[in-house]
Specification:
With 64 residues, the protein is mostly beta strands. Helix content is 11%, strand content 41%.
Length: 64
């Protein structure tokens, strides 16, 4: 799965705050994710994160 920094992940299960969107702050063997609802940051292993992702939303590139 091609997941990079600044992508938004739409998760299968929602965070306790009710949001399903997580912003990728760091990628590698582990992901640092930030909840778009409450701002809580978590570190999660790549294998677990990829299993729980429903959709990857790439940031839009602005053309000059």
């Amino acid at each position: 799965m091609d997941i990079e920094k600044n992508d938004v992940l739409l998760m299968k299960k929602e965070h306790p705050c009710g949001s399903r969107e997580m912003l990728v702050m760091r990628s590698g063997m582990d992901f640092r994710l930030k909840c778009k609802g409450c701002g809580h940051e978590i570190m999660i292993p790549r294998s677990k994160a990829e299993k729980n992702v429903k959709k990857v939303i790439k940031p839009e590139v602005e053309n000059p």
